[in-house]
Design a protein that fits this description.
It is built from twelve helices and seven strands. It has about 375 residues and is of the alpha+beta class.
Length: about 375
Amino acid sequence: MSMAGNLRRVTGLDKVGGLRRVARLGRRRRPVDLSHPARSPLGSSVVNCVTYRDGVRLPETGDLVEAVARVRKNRDGFVWLGLHEPTNQEFAGIAELFDLHPLAVEDAIEAHQRPKLEHYGETLFAVFKTVCYVEHEQLTATSEVVNTGEIMAFVGHDFVITVRHGRHGSLGPMREELESDPQQLAKGPAAVLHAIADHVVDDYLSVTDSIQADIDQVEMDVFAQNGARTDPGRIYQLKRELLELKRAVAPLGRPMEDLATRPIRVVDPEIQAYFRDVLDHLIRAKEQIAAFDEMLNSILQAHLAQVTVAQNEDMRKITAWAAVIAVPTMVCGVYGMNFEHMPELHWRFGYPLVIGVISTACLALYRGFRRNGWL
C-alpha cells in the first residue's frame, strides 16, 4: 500500500495515541471531492507525500510512520508532506507524529496570518502570503485585481510540511522544478523552504508587472482629452488592491532578513546565500509597490486638478453667456417699465433700432469672449 494511502488514515485520527497501529489498518478509500479543484486525488487535504534521499525522489513504499522512522534512523534524506486547507481532525495525527507546537498548528489550520518566521525548538515555522493577479477585460471601480492566499511551512532536520490556503499558489510546478535539480534538493529541507520563498516572491514581481499595465491604462485615460470625466473610483480601487498587495509583501521583509543573515539550526549556511537573492527580489517588489502608490497619488491629484480646471472652464462659459444675455435683458427691462413718457416709444424706427443695438452689443460681447477663450 502506498505511503499517501496510509497518510489519509493518519490525518483522519481522532486519537493520536494509536497512530502507528491505525496507520496500517486497511480502510476503504474516501470518495474524491471533485467540487474542490485544489483537493488531491486522494479526496483529503493531502496533496502529496514524498521521501527524498540525496536529492532523489524515492518510490512510495510503506506508510508515513515507517518512512519517517526510516529517515530518522538512517539520518539520511527527508519527508515532504503537502496539505491543502486541513481540518483539526486531519492535522491531529501529523502534529503528533512530527511533534509540532500547538500554536503553530493552530495558525496553520486557521490561516489569515501575517507573514512571519517563528522557532519552536528544532522546528522552524514560516508563513508566506501568496498573491495572484485577477484578469479582467476592463478595470472598473469594483474590479478585483489582487487575490491572496497563504502558505505555511514547518521545517525540521528531516521533514518539510507545507500547508496551503486558497485556490492559487500551487506548489506542484515548483516541486517538479526542484526535483529536476537533485544537487539543490540534496541540501535538505532548507532548500525546499528557499524554493517556496523564491516561488512566492516571484509571484509578487509578476503581479506588480501586471498592475503596472493597469496603472498605465488609468494614467492614459486621465491625461486623455476628456480625462476629467474619468471615473475616480477606478483609481481608488487600484489603491485598495495595491494596499492588499502591500500587506502581503511588506511584513515578509523581516523574516527574509532573518533567513538570509541570522544563523538558524535547520538552515544550512550555504542556503542563506540563496535567501539573500530572494531578499533582493523582495526589496525590488516593495520598492515597486511604494512607487505605484506614489504614482497613483499623483494621478489622483492630477485628475482632481483636471476636474477643477474643467469646472472653471464651465463657469467661464456660463458667465460669458450670462453677460451676453444680460444686454437684451437690460434693454427689455428698461422698455418694459410702462412709463407714459419714454423716448422713442412712438418713433417708427424705434423697434428696429433697439433690436439692432441689442444684436450689435451681443455680437461684440460674443467675439470678445471668444477671443479671450471663454467661449
